[in-house]
DNA sequence: CACTATGATTTAGA
DNA sequence: TCTAAATCATAGTG
């Protein structure tokens, strides 16, 4: 504000108004240093009193006179220019910082997690529902944990957006306020539009740094959520006995071609209370492990062979035996050797 | 605690 | 996109 006073005094001086009229302190000092020292303190005091005695109307009138002065616009633009140069030389050229890589990373992550992007309304088709399933291949994982995860994510998303909105509103309010203030002041002191622009940029930068904190904490929340829910998926739990039984039954009764179709998988999944991808996993694991060590699975194979045979028998009690589920072994996987004691 | 069983994930190939 | 194969990581068991 020291600048302001200096400029104002300069302005008034150039504007042709007497400095004494305005009560410029410089002029007082001058008077003291030149000539008669404490010539007339009373005089000075009177001058000062005159200022304070000035009515508001008088002051307004003076201000108005200043504003209407024919030299004012030209003068202001010159002053603006000088100020611009000074400010630039003081502040250097550290403006126009590039987009912060930190904030870009946060933005990308929030986008990837579906927090900041467009509303993923559908959800059913897993448009972006399963973040971790990107490479996994289990698009329609609708387990309980998953819906829980999505609910929590939606909650975070909602909080994030409402906070963001609040910040943005506050920012624009504050910006407006400052802009109005500066515009108002630009009538009495040299403020170029460029300067206002710069001030707005500064405000925006401040607010965006606050926003970054919001983004950061949101990211943290999402990370915690992920580790709690998605990584918990990896914490496997064995299928229940009945489910394993159903799967094994299918496997051993289709030993020649243990590749259930999509429909069969769906049915098995429903029967076992697991997802289709879990069924796929199970068959993948089972096939490779069976193939690797047929001997080890001998007993199990016999058990299920007997089981299906019994079932078949039960069925054929009513129908003909023509279509027994015990598929003949036609090449895919070696069939177990049915020795009575379970050895090969 | 070591060891095995087992569900999930990753990688590579068709 | 499906599968084989390897691998990871935890659950269960003695």
TrEMBL record:
Homeobox domain mapped to chain residues: 230-293
One Pfam family here: Homeobox_KN
Residue span, PBC domain: 36-231
Feature: compositional bias, Low complexity: 127-139
Gene Ontology terms, MF aspect: DNA-binding transcription factor activity, RNA polymerase II-specific; sequence-specific DNA binding
Region (Disordered), start-end ranges: 1-37, 114-146, 321-344
InterPro entries, per database record: HD, Homeobox_CS, Homeodomain-like_sf, KN_HD, PBX_PBC_dom, TALE_homeobox
CC per GO annotation: nucleus; transcription regulator complex
GO annotation terms (biological process): cell differentiation
DNA-binding region positions on the chain: 232-294
CDD domains per record: homeodomain (cd00086)
Keywords annotated in UniProt: Activator, Developmental protein, Differentiation, DNA-binding, Homeobox, Nucleus, Transcription, Transcription regulation
Annotated localization: Nucleus
Signal peptide extent: none
Keyword hit for DNA-binding: yes
Predominant place of localization: nucleus
SUPFAM superfamilies listed in its UniProt record: Homeodomain-like
The UniProt record lists the keyword Ribosomal protein: no
Stated family: Belongs to the TALE/PBX homeobox family.
Record's protein name: Pre-B-cell leukemia transcription factor 1
Taxonomic classification: Eukaryota, Metazoa, Chordata, Craniata, Vertebrata
